Amino acid sequence: MSFLELQDIKTHFPVHKGMFGGKVTEVVKAVDGVSMTINQGEILGLVGESGCGKSTLSRTIMQLIPATSGAVVLEGQNLSALPQYEVRRRRLDFQMIFQDPYASLNPRMTVHSTLAEAIRQRHKDAKGKVLDQRIAELMERVGLDQRFMKKYPHEFSGGQRQRIAIARALAPEPKLILADEPVSALDVSIQSQILNLLLELRKDLGLTMIFISHDLSVVRYLADNIAVMNQGKIVEYGEAEEVFNNAQHSYTQKLLEAIPRIQHSA
Ligand SMILES: Nc1ncnc2c1ncn2[C@@H]1O[C@H](COP(=O)(O)OP(=O)(O)OP(=O)(O)O)[C@@H](O)[C@H]1O
Ligand SMILES: [Mg+2]
Fold first, then answer.
1. Which residues pair with 15 in a beta bridge?
2. Among candidates 11, 21, 98, which has minimal Cα distance to 60?
């Protein structure tokens, strides 16, 4: 049984013309027939230019928006067929990391309260020393000093904030992390630290990841497999190095040419 199976997923958005929701005059086919299998512990890199449907696909996988058709099957269970309460429970298995940690963290919550809230999503009664211990563990896990526990997001650097966001994603003990452009807003030197942290988490916790980026060189660094998306469809899929060195599709070649600084390795 594969960990995650995407079966011919379509997510179409009807566009209403005129005020007050007039007639549907057009349909945006943001995701248009995506099928893929992702194995446990795999990092899938999902690339493609702006507007090709990457975020919509990840939100569809998370069941945050309903698929127009097709199925998301997690560990043999068709998520689209589950009742809402069951979907909410299973959604804990998926956690997201976003591009801008400052926007995704609550500015009025300390690291402690942010992580406490995330831990309680799964362990409702967690409190006191056990809770504090778990928070300290999570902070250590992502390379943050526990002495920062009572600090607020604005007191951290961009890279540190992304570490807080990663700790928060880990808190409900997910099986799958969907990272949507998690390093795009960071300095290049900080980027590689965060990418290395993600690789470490995969190794130590056996996490499966879908890593979304418009930057093929970033994806190459950590993905096992790469899927190239264009206008709602996967136009190329394969082992990372293979896709990188031997792109078959002209669209992938175009993406490769768009990389400003390719480092040739021999
Ligand atoms: N709720 C919505 N209603 C209508 N159209 C939408 C909606 N969400 C996304 N779209 C459209 O679907 C297409 C795919 O958008 P999406 O955000 O998935 O792209 P993306 O690949 O994540 O782009 P980016 O790299 O800029 O984040 C776009 O044309 C977008 O305008
Ligand atoms: Mg996006």
1. 26
2. 11
Task: Give this prediction's pTM.
Answer: 0.91
| Closest atom of ligand 1 to CA, residue 52 | 21
Where do the structural domains in the chain lie, given as residue ranges? Answer: 100-173
Q: Ligand 2 mean position to 55 CA, how many Å?
A: 4
Q: Is pLDDT above 70 for 19?
A: no
For residues 70 and 66, give the distance between their C-alpha atoms in angstroms, rounded to a whole number: 10
Q: How remote is the CA of residue 28 from the centroid of ligand 1, in Å?
A: 9
* Ligand 2 centroid distance, CA of 168 (Å): 20
Nearest to 31 by CA among 4, 70, 77: 70
Sequential DSSP letters for 182-218:
TTTTS-HHHHHHHHHHHHHHHHHH--EEEEEES-HHH
Q: What is the pLDDT of residues 66-107, one digit of tens each?
A: 999 999 999 999 998 899 999 989 999 999 999 888 888 999
Ligand 1 neighbour 50 (Cβ under 6 A): yes
Q: What is the DSSP code (8-state) at residue 154?
A: G
Q: What is the pLDDT of residues 24-55, one digit of tens each?
A: 678 999 999 999 999 999 999 999 999 999 99
Ligand 1 in reach of 54 Cβ (< 6 A): yes
